[in-house]
Write a structure and sequence with these properties.
By secondary structure, the protein is an alpha+beta fold. The protein has helices at residues 3-15, 20-32, 84-96, 162-168, 172-188, and strands at 44-53, 60-65, 70-72, 75-77, 101-103, 110-116, 119-120, 126-128, 131-142, 154-160. The strands form three sheets. Strands 1, 4, 5, 6 and 9 form a five-stranded mixed beta sheet that branches. Helix 1 runs antiparallel to helix 2. Keywords: Hydrolase. This is NUDIX domain protein. It comes from Posidoniimonas corsicana. InterPro entries: NUDIX_hydrolase-like_dom_sf, NUDIX_hydrolase_dom, Nudix_hydrolase_domain.
Length: 190
């Protein structure tokens, strides 16, 4: 079941040999855990994220994540779906209300592994252990001019210029997505 994911990782690593360490972490998880697409898989699981560009391709979609209290790209759990691009599109749609979101490339724009801290209830009991998200991030776009909608998972969702992204966050993984999307657009026609 994980063969398409492993092929995607091979292709990504061939284009980004300097990111071999990150790719190997995802590959090791996929090779060791047939259930890596389920959120119950520990020590981590696959997630799909979306770097969504506006119709004019000059802005990107960021949301202020309610639980993590950070400005991030849309994304979330695969919940058993091995097609991580489809996951990224689904999550971007759910978290923005935009219905016409499509991939600019079938290949990931970026791969990131990051720690999600444990969560505790009011009594101090652990409700979710700390775990890793092995996140495949895709460059998506929309041609929709419909207003975006804030989901229950976010405090805010907005279109941001590159300058606004830098004002809202210093998260290196988000800034890396911005740099990579700008480079992709420069190489593939803005």
């Amino acid at each position: 079941m994980n063969e398409p994911l492993l092929a995607l990782l091979d292709s990504y690593q061939s284009r980004h040999p300097d990111e071999a360490g990150m790719v190997e972490r995802v590959r090791a998880l996929a090779a060791a855990h047939a259930d890596c697409f389920e959120r119950t898989c520990l020590p981590g699981h696959l997630t799909g994220s979306a770097w969504v560009l506006s119709p004019d391709r000059r802005q990107c979609l960021l949301l202020h994540h309610r639980k993590l209290d950070k400005w991030l790209q849309p994304g979330g759990h695969a919940d058993g779906d091995p097609d991580v691009l489809r996951v990224a599109i689904r999550e971007a749609t759910e978290e923005s209300g935009l219905e016409r979101i499509f991939a600019l490339s079938p290949e990931p724009l970026d791969i990131d592994v990051h720690l999600i801290p444990e969560r505790r209830n009011a009594a101090g009991e652990v409700t979710e252990p700390a775990h890793e998200h092995h996140d495949l991030r895709f460059l998506l776009a929309t041609d929709a001019t419909a207003p975006i909608v804030v989901s229950h998972e976010s405090n805010d969702v907005r279109w941001c210029t590159p300058d606004e992204v830098h004002r809202l966050t210093q998260e290196e993984s988000v800034l890396r997505l911005l740099r990579k999307s700008e480079a992709w657009m420069d190489n593939n026609g803005r």
